[in-house]
Amino acid sequence: MTDIASDVLAFIDHSTGSDDAFNALALKVFAHQFAHNLPFQRFCQGRSKTPRMVKSWRDIPAVPINAFKDLTLSCLPPESCTRTFKTSGTTRGDVKGQHHHPDLAVYDASMLRNFAQHVMPSDTRMRMGVLFPDEVLMPHSSLAHYLALAITHFGTPDSRHYLDENGLCIDALCQALEAAQASAEPFMLLGASYGFVHLMDALQARGQTFQLPPGSRLLDTGGFKGQSREVPMDLFYEQLSACFGVGRDQCLNMYGMTELSTQFYDAGNPTVPSVKRGPHWIRSRLLDPLTGREVATGEQGILAHTDLGNYNSVVTILTEDVGQATGDGFVLLGRAQGTQAKGCSMAVDEFLQAAKA
To answer: For the chain, what percent of residues have pLDDT higher than 90?
Structure first.
């Protein structure tokens, strides 16, 4: 393990991370990437942002997420990395972004600590049903790995996946839900948002609903991505609550992406759109995609995340998601449209021209 990875692991393990400590480590990660990630170095030089000039994590140039589809953004040769996660390819067909991980120690530590903080304590186990294929079927999916970690570290031995190469295992899942309902033992369903839509449609066709025991939880992520019918989010959570007998406050959304090593969760508020909150090793800004500058307080902007878990790729990424800052996180407002989307595309073009120079 590299020294930089060890430093990030130590920071994750701290109970909290002060602003000064976060800033110092972010700058150290930035200097490491500037030295070893050539496309990123070229981009930063074009913006006159070098380790000698950048004094704050807020000034580290943000790399557009679509750059992961066109360039190798890795400090180590990809062939030496233990795992490469790939994006779903929903925006540019078969062109998938690739995020290379030398090993999974930092990614796993980030997921486990964060999940314990925001979803359930690490000393608690709950029977889990996963509405997503496992890692054998999807070895390059960061979500498949995330869900495998959830089952292994937080699930009971009878936890399992209910989506395989043949589709939704509806009979087996209904048996598990019926058993949970009868036993009064809490049950947790996790998976892609579109997986929940398919499940609710199947249950509606059967005329079946459930009243899961108190303490049961539902965790969805990823949106619908053309994999199911589109459902307004407020209606989606109303239907989830009614279908499984779980309160809206126990319907949790996880916001993450392949290009990050850390996830965000709802900050305990069941309203839509909800406030998202991350752990102490990730910080977010709202930017104008054309200028790279932060927008004024209270204004909408494109979310940029500085994730210390991204020690091998690029520490700060520019998403294509619109957000608005709150006192304890940000509200996710959807994908960039119109002028903001055009600005994101121009930011990608600028990065690629500079990085390939």
So the answer is: 75
With 90 as the cut, is the pLDDT of residue 273 above it?
no
- 3-state DSSP of the chain: CCHHHHHHHHHHHCCCCCHHHHHHHHHHHHHHHHHHCHHHHHHHHHCCCCCCCCCCHHHCCCEEHHHHHCCCCCCCCHHHCCEEEECCCCCCCCCCCEEEECCCHHHHHHHHHHHHHHCCCCCCCEEEEEECCCCCCCCCCHHHHHHHHHHHHHECCCCEECEECCEECHHHHHHHHHHHHHHCCCEEEEEEHHHHHHHHHHHHHHCCCCCCCCCCEEEEECCCCCCCCCCCHHHHHHHHHHHHCCCHHHEEEEECCCCCCCCEEECCCCCCCCEEECCCCEEEEEECCCCCCECCCCCCEEEEEEECCCCCCCCEEEEEEEEEEECCEEEEEEECCHHHHHHHHHHHHHHHHHHCC
> Residue 152: which residues within 8 A CB-CB, separation 6 or more?
none
| pTM (2 d.p.) | 0.93
| Structural fold of domain 3-85+278-355 | Luciferase; domain 3 (2.30.38)
Domain boundaries, the chain: 3-85+278-355, 107-266
